[in-house]
């Protein structure tokens, strides 16, 4: 049951707008590549995987909101809070996968376009490091308590290791994600500087870079929120963090789709 201070209204619509718009842009990208007989490559398949993870995360986020996320913690019933906690865990897992794989797709695209071995090495390092660091968050979240049921349900007695470890890992991965977004926003010019591009193609690259930088800004905002998330009223105070967690991969997918259109 929502109270007067609820943030629930409009949350589900916001979640699905991000999923649908990014899905439409990705669909147009894939259609254009097939229509032009260019074929699909690993960057396309990883982008599709990223979007599927985003949709899964949005589905779990929808259930999470329907069961009370967005209301103050004390306004949510004990049975609902167990469901909310479980959905928060699933949202974390799939949104992290969506984000890390979207950056993987971007880096793979650049790998395909460049023959510079040094630059390819940098891109491979980006792919490996972002996937290891970001996905370590949900692995740590699952492993922090034994038995695993006690992670989301305090009715199960269990032993948990220090939560500051998870906090520091989340903070580090959010900051690193932001740094990589800005790097990936700049690298296209390095890769394409010697290529002859039409005005339309240059505009597409510029817009894609701007959106990639926006994704970096979103990641920086997430870092700031993670650093300041100390409230026990997490079902209310972390609403904006969840929105940004969905927005980052959605914006990345849109950014990667534009140059192909």
Give a description of the structure.
The protein starts with 10 loop residues before the first helix and ends with a helix. Helix 1 packs antiparallel against helix 2 and helix 4 packs antiparallel against helix 5. It is an all-alpha fold. The protein is 75% helix and 2% strand. It contains eight helices and two strands; from the N terminus they run ααααββαααα. The model has no long low-confidence stretch (mean pLDDT 86). The chain has one domain: Up-down Bundle (Rhopdopsin 7-helix transmembrane proteins). A two-stranded antiparallel ribbon has the order 1-2.
Quick summary of this structure?
Belongs to the SAT4 family. The chain is mainly α and 261 residues long. The protein is 75% helix and 2% strand.
